[in-house]
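ESCALATION

Customer reports they have been waiting on this structure for their group meeting. Please prioritize. Original submission:
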Amino acid sequence: MYSETTLKRFCFSVLFLMWGAAAIAAEDDVVPVTDDSAAASTEVVSASSLARMMILDGEHDFGVVREGEVEKVVHTFKFKNSGEENLKILKVKPSCGCTRAEPSSKDLAPGEEATMEAEMKLKGKSGTSTVSVTVDTNDPTQRTHVFRIKGTILNPIRIVPGVVDLGPIGAGETKSRSLNVTSQVLEGDPIIRILKMLSESPEITAATKEENRRVVKKPDNSYTEITRPVEVTVTGGDEMGQNQGELIISTDSVDNPTHTVQVRWKIEGDIEKQPGKVYISRIKNRTIDRALILRSRSGKPFHVNSIKTLIDKGEGDFLDIEPVTDSTEDTKKYMVRIKDDGVERTKETCQGSIVFETDHPETKVVKVPFVAVFR
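Update from on-call: job pushed to the front of the queue and completed.
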């Protein structure tokens, strides 16, 4: 006869083996719900689960509203468990911090319907805007479902870009860039007008061009968009280096009458470099070369006496700067490429400058920054 202790050990061993076999058999029948967030569900989704999620109302268009007229949009979505097992809501994730959503139930019996109230805050939004809410479930046929709220928020006045950067300009040279002053209005709404444009910087002037109007038709409402191009012009002065100023646009808007646009430019010598920075690369023995042009803005003839390379990051003699035959007296053309200097480089980025010494009376030295990428 076996002792009582021996029988207990035998029974425990049998139960352990049965549990292990069941776990192994179930391994091929489960798919883990993966998520990188700390709050991710640790539940698993069975591939043979009969839970099915059916979206009854998955998208809401709140139409066209004026900016500031509506603080938030709230909509109640509907969904249903059309399967034969309980449907579980494992995770609800809005696409941005301006949105929140909460389902009425996270465990639905077969045939049961539920709702999800979603809220979208409109502060800071303009134009066509869409947010989404992603819902993860234990439906193995489609574990992720997306609900959307969308609509259009009309902006009475919008200036794009808010910063106008004209880049390098020669002394006495004139360069222009455009910005757009746009208004979106419903029928009967007043259209904001530009009254005047001023700048304390004598180098900056601005002028409006012919406006464009278009009617944007929506299912429930239509609105008119008026675009007024403004040409911002800077005439380079004598102060070399980076310069900036402000363009003040005054309108007849009651709520926001004055708008400020930052204007930036850089005064360089008579010799212009195109491009302002050279990017070259060698990736898997494939080399990408770049053309480089030095041009006298005033048309003065000049010669390049010498060319040298300054390496700020990296080392070696890997740059080849070859003159192009169709150069002229006031324009010099080069091809910049990577050459083999016997150094093995993998996943390295080198930076520095190409320095041209010229006989130009006003611009003796021209520096062109470069970036060389090796992969």
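Sent to customer with the following note: Confidence is low (pLDDT under 50) at residues 1-42.
Escalation resolved.
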